[in-house]
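Dear colleagues,

As part of the handover before I leave the project, I'm documenting each prediction I ran so the next person doesn't have to rerun anything. This entry is a single chain, and its sequence is reproduced below.
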Amino acid sequence: MTVFFRTTGTMGGPEFFVRPTSRSLRAVRIPVIVAVVERPDGLVLIDTGWSRRTCAFPDDDPGLVNRLLLGLAVKPEDALASQLISQGYTPADVRHVVATHLHADHVGGVVDFDRATVHVHAREIDAAATGLRGGYTPAVRSLPRVNPYTLDGPPALGFPFSKDLFGDGTVLLLDGRGHTAGSIVVAVKLQEGWCLHAGDAAQYVGEYRADDSAPPSLYARAMSWNLGEQRRTYGLLRDAERSAEARVVVSHDPELLNALPTTKETAWACAWDKRKAAPKPKR
């Protein structure tokens, strides 16, 4: 099992809105970081980014006004389904999609993977019923092949609630509420430590690493379901970095993307690879 990362195009906005300490009007480009996890029985995607349709026809979906508001810049080849082909896979290889939450930039591409089960926290499904007030579009409220779940497992990696997705300890779903009511953090067991894909738990790495007294970004204030819960998640991510050798990935940090593996040749090796490579005992 390995994990690498891609972005499905970029979005943009003024720096003062997304960076908590900036007053600059300078436009910044932000990625939409998704994770591709290769398991023995197929691929697991952590979020999907935008769909093929959106990447080819953004003025139709999400529409011209939304494209301009989001600063969306995409090309047809930016769709994750197309990028997987360039990595030697096919969309049919994707067996599972784990949604960090149900905003369209994170799950719009689900429609391109018609064999995948889509795992969504039951609380996030309920939250999506609030519609545009919660930032949810109609399309994400009717995703196909959804498997709702609850976090009914024991504490893990310092987080109070968890779910062992495959029952083998390699992929854990953790309570990352704050940005939305049902946001999760997805933990993938590496050969050394863990990878934690935290979605929009924070906009930038520096946001969750900052002292609790630091002011949140305007984006966090505008888009958080519960800013107090989001600050709690900040602390859990910091603790996981310190105590669990966790490599935390958030979805929209451009500097972070530059430091991540983006191909299967450079991918982080996971726990499965260690088991696979272990020599057989001599008879």
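Residues 2-261 form a domain with the Metallo-beta-lactamase; Chain A fold (CATH 3.60.15.10). The CA atoms of residues 47 and 99 lie 5 Å apart.

All the best with the project,
I.
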